[in-house]
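Two proteins were folded this term; both appear here.
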Amino acid sequence: MTKPNMSVEIAGVKWNNPVTTASGTFGFGKEYAEYFDLGELGAVCLKSLSAVPRLGNPSPRIAETNYGILNSVGLQNPGAEYFLENELEEIRKYDTKIIANICGSTVEDYIAVTKILQDKVDMLELNISCPNVKEGGMAFGTNKDMVYDITSRVKEAAKVPLIVKLSPNVTDIAEIAASAESGGADALSLINTLLGMRIDIKTRRPILKNNMGGLSGPAVKPVAVRMVYQVRQAVKLPIIGMGGISTSDDAIEFMMAGANAVAVGTAGFVDPYAWVNVKNGIEQFLIENNISDVNDIVGTVELN
């Protein structure tokens, strides 16, 4: 057969293929540009950006687990203005879409970083797993009313499509997704990390200085696939699926569950070519199964 179509459209933005990076695992791309052309990816999602620089949490802030890692980096970043002045031009050299993940401690923080970035990136990803300091530290993404409020207010300030990244640390992921959709989200990405903990039995203290952190890697994949499936049934928005994707087979699972695109993250710490390998593997699957368009596998799971 002829070469299959690998392009996808996410909220009106055309990607050359359905593979992107998970925020927090790719920096600003320079490290991985030494290994492959970033234009191989449909999009690159950058590390979280705030309106002002953040130092992050004290170390140790990474702990390995049997099937993944715990991180408590704390959204360390040099700030959105630094990014625009020192990083953006380099990324723009590549034929890929740029997604800026934005973070903050108040709604006003999110609006401020949105206004700094304006339309200088292709899409924004709203990280609603951040603690809302005005609500006693509760994460924005764990309450449907807060999800609606922050989505609608950031959407009003945004000049490019807004992706809302959902936290899995909730009772009903479909309810949260529906609130984001009602608030004006243009797309959804899920899942963010699951809250986890490791203890050093010799010292009887948590390994992470912050005690708990976000679990990513293969251990979370079945949870992520389930949540993508549930969200696909609840909303009509494009979905970017993520959570433990290491291979093209993993990515195809997510797409069959209802994801329109996929993000690879932790796997890149083990293999810097993980993103390209996943993209190439999806294309090979299409060829082997005589499927002419990658979009044709989306949501094709058949329940028992």
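Next, the second protein.
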Amino acid sequence: MSEELSFLTIAEAAERIRTGTLSPITLTEAYLDRISALDSVLHAYIRVLASEALEQAKQAETAIAAGGWKGPLHGIPLGIKDIYNTAGIPTTGHSALFRDHVPAEDATTVRLLREAGAVILGKLSTFEFAIGGPSFDLPWPPARNPWNLDRQPGGSSSGSGAAVAAGLCAGAMGSDTGGSIRYPAAWCGIAGHKPTYGLVSRKGVLPLAYSLDHAGPMCWTSEDCALMMQVLAGHDPGDPASADVPVPDFAAVLGSDLSGLRVGLVRHFYEKDAPSGAETIAALEQAATLLSGLGAKVADITIAARATYTDLCMIIMEAEAYAIHERHLTTTPEMYGALGRRWITSGAIIPASTYINAQRLRRKLTSELVAAMRDVDVLLMPTWGEPASEFGDAASLRLDVAFTMPFNVTGNPALSVCSGFSSDGLPLSMQIVGRHFEDATVLKIGDAFEKASGLRGHRPALA
């Protein structure tokens, strides 16, 4: 029974809760039972908040029974990446440096989820301060991929990806500076949405690179991401980069016709710039054919070379990360893991002129992409060119086949969905990229693909 309940989508569970056929308490207990049974090998959670979650579930059940249903997240158990501040609960960044860091207030997004009636199951593991890779010299072990425990789950939102895929929460919060929502979504076979820059507040989220950081949802389906986005999106004066724009009804467009939508296949990314695996390419081509059958018009499109975006992203990320961590790195470097310390310290040697020129080129590339997308509604490419790597050193991250960083540079909305499975049963991935603040269109296409492909019926087999 617990597996049956923990594999419900948010949309399915919400409907049962709304109609009174599913108790938020029963649902929360099912997730807590599954966490207890599986997380000792998955290590998706740093901290499980069992008593707090059950109390929130009781409050939700009482309110709903009295006619106070707040919406699709009311009574839904979620996990929070441990870089999101939680009032009175440690927020560690998966680092010894912040082991005892207890914020006084929630991050804006955590507050919004609580106000929507969500149940917070606990804090999820991450790469240290959302950079680097899976490390074994930190206070908590790295998360593992539920499809194969010898494989990485991706990161930095590693616990979020693993927990959603394994049914240890209905949805999760991730963050994305160079691909940290979409990378674990790709390797764990789930849906991960990096919103348009500025659409979701980052107030109260431990920063990595101010001009690249995005906050967003990770779920089993694009539909569930849309339901979470309805709560998360909106202007927040507490985030200097927050955009004051209207929030669409993300769920309203789901299920509508794709006829006339124009899809630009960025073939040179995965065939020439960073050649991807044959299975990844074959799955993408099949996905493009499926979208064409649903009414979309698919054609090749050329944008700037992948490496141009990626090099810019790395320069900006490393420089800004070092600026954020400089004080701690120069006073208590031993409190960092070796991999995180090495990655962040690399920003110390980037000259100011290099950083400034990177930001200037960034504006040019963003303007060029806006112009290129006047002829298409979305771009299509792999999220990652290969399925999940085995655990190893930083090289195993395979950044040479990553297609996520360009859209941190430009700030466009980007959704990763599962496009199929490799011959050895690992998820393959596809990325859908939209125009600025057209997140609803991106989620609509992801939802249409998932429902037409039938891929969401296959979960990792964990005993």
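The radius of gyration is 20 Å. The first helix runs from residue 2 to 6. These notes refer to the second protein only.
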